Every structure is written in structure tokens, then in C-alpha cells.
Amino acid sequence: MAKPGEGKMEKRLRWMRENVQGAYNARHPAGHTKDGGDDHCTNSGTCILVYCYLEALGKVLLKGKHGPGRRFQEFIERCMPDLDSEFRAMGIIKAHAWFYREFRSAFVHGYPKPDYAWKRGGFGKYFLRDKQRRTILNIDEFVAGFERGIERFKECAVIDPDLRINFIPYITE
After folding, report:
1. Which residues, 6+ apart, have CB-to-CB distance to 27 below 8 Å?
2. I need a surface site. Which of 56, 77, 79, 88 has the fewest CB within 10 A?
């Protein structure tokens, strides 16, 4: 249900935030080896939702055009410049394709390479390294960056009202 004064775009953005926060705040169930309680899940669902929403909002930014990898890249470049900066600092060539292929596709489809992982790691950096030198996507910063990205997306819709007006057709085409 829409909140007072909330348009179609705002409602969908709120739903995205609520879905991500619901997954992000999930706890292990009673009887789990982690014993339930206050222990957060290292929740793959959180990352999968964020990846899907990055791609969907990139599709809107591109006005329904281009393939999934390009949509993903568009959202990161325009709405998550801090992630883009971290890619550059890591020296990754073709960073968006690497992130889409090595992290998004591998984890979404269930076959991540042993030298990649994701876990909760606090705030400030998107990527961490462990003792085994694996590249680890930091779920805490990924969610925080997505939240900031939604705010930047809204700014894009102010600059280009067509994004707000045609949000539903662009996201559903």
C-alpha cells in the first residue's frame, strides 16, 4: 500500500529497501548450528536482492535499454560512485564485468569460486581479504552503499523527470 504522497516510483523504491532490510536483519532460526538468537545470518539472500535491484534500477536509468550487465554497470557508475572508486583502487580491469560475473552470477547461480566469499564485515569498505587472501564482499557496506545508491537514484529522477514518469514501463519492459 502506498504511503500518503508516495508515487509509483517511491513505493517500489521503498519496497526494495524493505526487502533488503528484511533479508539483512534476518537471524538464524532456533535449532540452527548458530543457535538462533541475536546472531545475524551471513545472508546470501541479502546480496542476491541487492544485485537484482541494482540491475533493475540500472534498467530504469537506461530507459529500458541494454542488457543486464550494462544495466548493472550503469547503476554502479551513477548511483554508487564509492563502489566504483573502490574498484579502481583495487586495480581491477573491467571491474563491472568482473563484479557481475565473479560475484553476482556465481553466487546467484550457486557456483562461487573458492577465492571469493561474502560476509558481514562492518562499514567503510566493500571488499575485504581474509587469511587465505580471498576477496570478500562485505555485506554490511554493500547494503549501506545500496541505501545511498537509492538516494542518488532519486536525485537522477529529479534531474530527468522521465525516469519517475516512466519508472514502471522502464522497469517492466
Report:
1. 36, 37, 38, 39, 40, 41
2. 88
pTM: 0.88
Cell digits of residue 37: 538468537
Identify the CA nearest to 137 among candidates 87, 72, 79, 74.
Answer: 87
Question: How far is CA 6 from each of CA 15, 58, 93, rounded to the nearest angstrom?
Answer: 12, 21, 41
Q: For residue 154, report the phi and psi dihedrals to the nearest 5 degrees.
A: -60, -40
Where does the chain have alpha helices with state H?
A: 8-24, 44-61, 68-79, 81-90, 95-98, 106-108, 139-159, 161-165, 167-172
72-92 pLDDT, tens digit each = 899 999 999 999 899 888 887
